[in-house]
Amino acid sequence: MRLLGLAILFVVAVASNAQTQKTDPCKGDTTYEMRQCAARRYKQADDELNRVYRNLISKLDNEGHQTSLKTAQQAWLKYRDSHCEFESYLNRGGTIYPVVLTECVTSVTTARTKELKEEIYRLEHL
């Protein structure tokens, strides 16, 4: 009886794991699947960054302040790209390189979005 219970528990656990992998699009087994997932994550992060950036720009009433943000954002983009090239350098030439590079860009983009949200909060609570 105990063995039957363990067997049923094992089958349920395996089925649950298989279902999780099917519902989680980022549980890729191939580099191609990982690249696709990384690209989706980056697109979501980039869309959020652009939404927050536009929101912040709209809250800046001084043209000089807007220009300052635009200059900072352009410099940040150069930093993000060069930083992630550095971080993923050892993977260059490998099939995992695009995944490592995209995950870095996503991470840095998410951090920048948080910074811009903090600026919005600061402006709204002056």
- Please, how many domains? 1
Question: Which fold does the CATH topology refer to?
Answer: Substrate Binding Domain Of Dnak, Chain:A, Domain 2
How many β-strand stretches? 0
Helix percentage range: over 70%
Radius of gyration: 21 Å
What pattern of helices and strands is seen along the backbone? Answer: HHHH
Give the terminus-to-terminus CA distance: 68 Å
CATH class: Mainly Alpha
Gross geometry: elongated
So, CATH architecture? Up-down Bundle
Features:
Substrate Binding Domain Of Dnak, Chain:A, Domain 2; 0% strand; mainly alpha
Report on this structure.
The protein is mainly alpha-helical and about 130 residues long. It has one domain: Substrate Binding Domain Of Dnak, Chain:A, Domain 2, CATH 1.20.1270. The chain is about 85% helix and about 0% strand. The chain has four helices and no strands. The chain has helices spanning about 1-25, 30-60, 65-85, 95-125. α2 (about 30-60) runs parallel beside α4. Mean pLDDT is about 85; it is low at about 5.
In short:
The chain is mostly helical.
Any chance you could write out the topology, listing elements then pairs?
Elements: H1 2-23, H2 31-59, H3 63-87, H4 97-124
